[in-house]
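Hi L.,

You mentioned the student needs an example of a multi-chain input paired with its predicted structure. This one should do, with 464 residues in total across all chains.
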Amino acid sequence: MLTVFSLSIIAMASEGGGSLIDVNPGVIFWTVVTFLILLLILKKFAWKPILTALEQRETAIRESLEKAERAKEDAQKVLDANQANLAKAEEESKQIINQSRAYAEKLKEQIIQESKENAKKMIDEAAAEIDRKKDAAFDELKNQVAEIAVKAAEKILRETLDNETRKKLVDKYIGEIGKN
Amino acid sequence: MFLSKTSEVAAAADTLKKAVQSSNSDPSWIMHHVLDSNSINFEPFGTIYLPHLQLFGLDISITKHVFFIWIIAIVLIVFALIAAKGYKKSLVPKGISNFLEIIIIFIRDEIVKPSIGKGYESYLPYMLTLFMFILLSNLFGLIPYSTTVTSNIAVTAALAGISFVVTQYSGMKSYGVLKYFKNLIPSGMPGWIIPIIIPLEILGLFTKPFALCIRLFANMIAGHIVIFSLLGLIFIMHTIYVAPVSVGFALFIEMLELLVALIQAYVFTMLTALFIGMAKHSDH
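Structure written out for the whole complex:
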């Protein structure tokens, strides 16, 4: 209001030198009316839809960025879990291998020990057997030798000697054999 | 640019007779092209005479400038509606929508949001309309056979008046009428200074829109007067040899006008946003 008023004053004051700053109230009226109608129409049919669309788009972009961020975090989490699992599995497998290696080692030792023992036992047994067999053979040999000797002596006695001499001889030999 | 130039040469030529008749020193032919009138000249095709209207004793004749304000409004509406339609198909705009979006986002993020702050959304349609209207009005002045409506002080006064009303409304809305006027007086003032401060503050309220009005008007009219004066030199000096210089300088000024058209639209919108922001947060 005052603007218009002061402008009119200036316009009146400088009326002589052209009317550049002559304020025409009609033009003010039409400008205000046109501007207000323009504002109403644009607000309803242009700015509102455009601004809403812009906001929607910005929200959509923000949301998708957040979603992407969240997805990334989730993926990282899964990756971390996987890595942890992998490490655990590796650890476990190592442990299993170690365990089995130790077990195998023990088993080997045991088997070797057992087989050594077995071998020793077998050797011992064999030695015992050999001893026994040797003893038996020796006994048999002794018996046979004795038998043969008896028989030989019998034969000799029967054939050659008189009773007395035979007796002496037999005794002497038998004594000798017995010493052996 | 070229078309515009030829139109101004044509405009200058059609007033050659007048310039010669008025002993080469009367500048009224320039005024004739800058001022508002009740007819639209399409020399050499003819002249459209616009109707005279009266409303409650007020002369509301449709003048040349009013006619072009309507043309600008229609162009703006068509332009904006096409742009708005582009968003119906998809959220990612193309063509005109894309171009308009640059302006809208610039105004929203660089002017309105930082200046007004919280609650800026409700002022956005007004600011966008203001910027687009002033920008289009300024640019229309560069089109042949058109006229610069913003070089009419009544138009800029009306725009500044609307800006003033919006500013006061925003202040009163956020504080209430009484508190708003109380906030005009800076706090912590000694009592005896208040009688001096009050008229100053009230004057300050009105100088802001007054400055808005004069700034836009003067900037827009100055370029045109300079262009017409440069071209007028050809006819005043009665020689064709000055024409290249005149046209060259006029072309330069015209380029400058293109820049000024943008800058003035920006400045008007920016300052209005600032004033609204100041009125909204005047308690500090």
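You could point out the following to them. Chain B has a mean pLDDT of 79. DSSP finds ten helices and four strands in chain B.

Best wishes,
N.
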